[in-house]
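User: tokens in, sequence out, please.
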């Protein structure tokens, strides 16, 4: 029975109900066999009734199957005044509601798909900017890259990056619709761009912006610039745009700070290189130059000596100076303590230097030490020794002095070194710090001043033509 149609089922039921009494009466002999022809009209009537009842139901079942298959516009065609008409109308109304709901669902899915696609594009652009941030250490190329990527990816009418200087923002990079280049360098007040109210700032000539997103580029509480996007249509920016601009603004802020630190590091590196060059120049001046000068003096004295014994002494002194100069030069390359300070105090090293000068030159040299010296760093001791060596060298070479006095004095928070001679003197203003290096007057007095200043100290030169010279160096105690 399950495989039979509704029409067949009704026909069989109604035919059985109408024909069964006739058949029973024939079988019981109540009516003759010739009256069996009555069964044919009964069957015809049963079929007609089954067809009349089943046709609307079948139409409804077929319509339900079509609706189930997704054909929501299907409509049951029933005879007028059919008893199943209300059912058909209810099914039709339900199908209409389902069609409307399906349409809204499809619209929602399409909108969500578009939003997810746009989000993926935004994240890809953010990733591109992040890669560029990691690769570029120059701010200008980075800012131009950022505005081009944002303009091309999201179709913003204007994208601009502004850098802060004081209370103003400077237009550093800008990409605008239908414009190859935008004039840069224009100045805007910080509050005027980032206030969030009022008319958008005019960034690209010829484009009147109706909507704007201006996001500060921050490093902690410090605003280093602003990233601005504009549209000629009002009300087009949403939360996704705000997320994108804020994320990229944060990346660019970090990149600008990285570029600044890189530039500062490069400057410090150049400064360190220059300082090391100056140090080597001072060390060469204080070791090789002075040593060669002493060697030349002894060789000349050896040539002019009438006594072979005296000539031998000058030759031995020249050889000793050559070895000491070579040793000091090697120590200077490795930035080690001067040889005279090895295992000795500063006063002992100065005493040895004064004795060597008195032995090598025809002048009287004397050292006096006053007070208990405070602890000095190795760098401070080396600087004072080098300053004393240079002052003694100048007294021998230039001053034509007959007497030199070296004083080492302990002061409240520093150590003072004074080297005084009775030579011909000079004008100190002719040997300022700017006259250092090649062609600038050598590394003598300026080199001494540089050594003192590097340790937070001072150097004073008291001299005048015909009045001798006095050099006073003060180095703070305990400074590194």
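Assistant: Sequence out:
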């Amino acid at each position: 029975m399950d495989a039979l149609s509704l029409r067949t089922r009704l026909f069989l039921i109604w035919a059985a109900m109408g024909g069964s009494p006739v058949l029973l009466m024939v079988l019981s002999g109540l009516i003759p066999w010739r009256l069996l022809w009555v069964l044919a009209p009964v069957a015809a009537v049963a079929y007609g009734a089954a067809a009349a009842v089943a046709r609307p139901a079948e139409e409804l079942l077929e319509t339900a199957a079509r609706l189930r298959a997704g054909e929501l516009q299907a409509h049951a065609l029933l005879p007028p005044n059919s008893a199943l008409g209300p059912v058909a109308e209810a099914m039709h109304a339900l199908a209409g509601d389902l069609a409307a709901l399906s349409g809204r669902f499809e619209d929602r899915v399409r909108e969500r798909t578009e939003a997810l696609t746009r989000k993926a594009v935004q994240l890809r652009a953010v990733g591109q900017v992040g890669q560029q941030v990691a690769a570029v250490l120059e701010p200008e190329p980075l800012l131009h890259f950022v505005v081009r990527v944002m303009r091309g990816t999201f179709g913003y009418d204007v994208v601009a990056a502004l850098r802060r200087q004081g209370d103003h923002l400077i237009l550093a990079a800008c990409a605008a619709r239908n414009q190859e280049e935008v004039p840069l360098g224009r100045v805007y007040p910080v509050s005027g761009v980032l206030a969030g109210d009022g008319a958008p700032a005019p960034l690209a000539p010829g484009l009147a912006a109706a909507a704007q997103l201006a996001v500060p580029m921050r490093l902690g509480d410090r605003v280093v610039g602003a990233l601005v996007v504009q549209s000629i249509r009002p009300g087009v920016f949403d939360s996704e745009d705000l997320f994108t601009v804020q994320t990229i603004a944060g990346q660019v802020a970090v990149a600008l700070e990285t570029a600044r630190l890189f530039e500062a590091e490069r400057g410090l590196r150049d400064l360190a290189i220059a300082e090391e060059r100056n140090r080597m120049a001072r060390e060469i001046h204080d070791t090789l130059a002075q040593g060669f000068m002493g060697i030349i003096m002894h060789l000349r004295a050896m040539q002019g000596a009438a006594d072979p014994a005296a000539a031998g002494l000058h030759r031995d002194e020249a050889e000793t100076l050559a070895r000491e100069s070579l040793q000091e030069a090697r120590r200077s390359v490795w930035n080690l303590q001067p040889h005279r300070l090895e295992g000795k105090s500063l006063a002992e090293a100065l005493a040895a230097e004064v004795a060597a000068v008195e032995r090598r030159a025809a002048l009287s040299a004397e050292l006096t030490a006053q007070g208990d010296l405070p602890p000095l760093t190795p760098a401070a001791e080396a600087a004072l020794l080098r300053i004393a060596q240079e002052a003694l060298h100048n007294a021998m070479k230039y001053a034509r002095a007959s007497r030199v006095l070296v004083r080492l004095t302990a002061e409240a928070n520093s150590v003072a070194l004074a080297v005084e001679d009775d030579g011909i003197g000079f004008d100190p203003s002719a040997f300022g710090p700017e006259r250092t290096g090649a062609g600038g007057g050598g590394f003598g007095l300026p080199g001494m001043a540089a050594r003192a200043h590097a340790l937070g100290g001072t150097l004073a030169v008291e001299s005048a033509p015909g009045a001798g010279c006095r050099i006073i160096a003060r180095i703070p105690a305990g400074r590194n």
